[in-house]
Amino acid sequence: MTALDHLDAPLRMTWFLDDRLAPARQILLAERLVEAGLFELTLTGHPLRCPVLKEILGILAGRGMQVSLVVTADDRDLLPVTGQPPARVLLDLGPSPGDVVPDWRGIEGHVQSLREAGCFPGLQLLPLRSSIRLLPDLFLLATDLAVDQVLLPNVPLTDFAGEDPGPRLLRAEDLESFAGFWERIDPRPPIPSGLVVHDLFLWEILCPGQRRDHYSGCQAGNSLGHLDAAGILYPCSSWNQPLGALFDAALTDLWQGDLRRSIRDDIARQPDACNGCRVYARCLAGCRGLSRAFSSEDDEGRGRDLMCSGRRDL
């Protein structure tokens, strides 16, 4: 098996894992990921419902891969993780479908159970219009629980099956409103030492003046990839362009294909909406996948991050 061409960075992938596929096919997908020599894998969706999770964790750990696991509010009662413990377990604090606000009760007990199981617990919250102002409470919770790892991920389009996530996504005006809200908080909660913010514009509000290590623009199809519940490979969980089925071809073959390379060529081109912007050299247009999915052809901001205001002329 040919090793994966990592290009600019080692490949980090997410895999939406649940109980829909036959166990043998899920094992096959795990083996395909191992064959590709991934650097890091995060199991999203409902991994605790997967009947062969223990076997999958054993396969992944056997090759030294860094494995993280995300547990939603609906699945917390399935904790702790059994079998080979992953390096990190993120407790997703977003609301369950139909809920207006998240229910964070019992989080302390779950954090403790994960530590006793040999896992490193972390917290995750998806920044949406309904959740962005919960960040101060999230940071205080992390401080109280002595949790360093806090993740604010990109919006994974595959997690909104049957629902249009567009109305829930943060736009430039939402971020400007949050910036004013954050500025007025006194005292401001401490920022977790292990905070990871996928969107550059949100990072700069929360951590002004702090260097964001290794940021080099949209990494879809380069250092990021995503595998959905059916075994379909994508450039990123936020880029809904299928590259092919992992049952039909090795990940290395799909990754070396013309379609993935054309996506990287598109990302390398500066969007027309970014012409004359004095911060383009820093942001490189941000998240391209969400912009591609939720900007119309005649949208003057098409191609740049949905949270960019566009008012950055020289």
Automatic annotation (TrEMBL):
InterPro entries: 4Fe4S-binding_SPASM_dom, Aldolase_TIM, rSAM_sf. Gene3D superfamilies: Aldolase class I. It comes from Geothermobacter hydrogeniphilus. Residues 218-277 form the 4Fe4S-binding SPASM domain. This is 4Fe4S-binding SPASM domain-containing protein.
